[in-house]
Design brief:
Four Helix Bundle (Hemerythrin (Met), subunit A), single chain, mainly alpha, globular
Length: 130
């Protein structure tokens, strides 16, 4: 397993957590959303690497999340699909109203991404190395 991506995602999740602990303001919201986007991108890339160690291939966030369902790393939860939609809309069509809505979902998304990292790092594949 690529230790660099693991280190990067841990740091990114910590920074998102720190941002969410700050007093709410437009600046903090925008910062937290950008940090979420980074966490999301690192998260699905971690899933892609993990799938590869299991002999599977996934090449998009949606396919990697579905692969994690199949591998038992994640339990099916519609919030994963909502997370993908939110991330894509934020990146491609930034609207303040959407940003406000997604900002309030970030604590849940943070916990979901932390859970993936935790689950992957507890697998034999992670412990034994690729």
């Amino acid at each position: 397993m690529d230790k660099k991506i693991l280190s990067d995602i841990k740091k990114a999740l910590e920074k998102l957590d720190d941002a969410l602990k700050q007093e709410d303001s437009e600046y903090i919201r925008d910062s937290a959303i950008k940090r979420f986007e980074l966490c999301f991108d690192l998260g699905w890339k971690l899933m892609k690497l993990y799938a590869k160690t299991e002999g599977l291939e996934c090449n998009s966030p949606r396919s990697c999340i579905r692969t994690m369902f199949e591998l038992g790393i994640l339990r099916y939860d519609e919030n994963w699909m909502q997370m993908i939609t939110d991330r894509n809309e934020l990146v491609h069509i930034y609207r303040q109203e959407l940003a406000d809505i997604v900002y309030h979902r970030l604590p849940e998304y943070l916990q979901m991404l932390k859970a993936v990292l935790d689950k992957i790092t507890k697998t034999p594949t992670y412990k034994d190395g690729p």
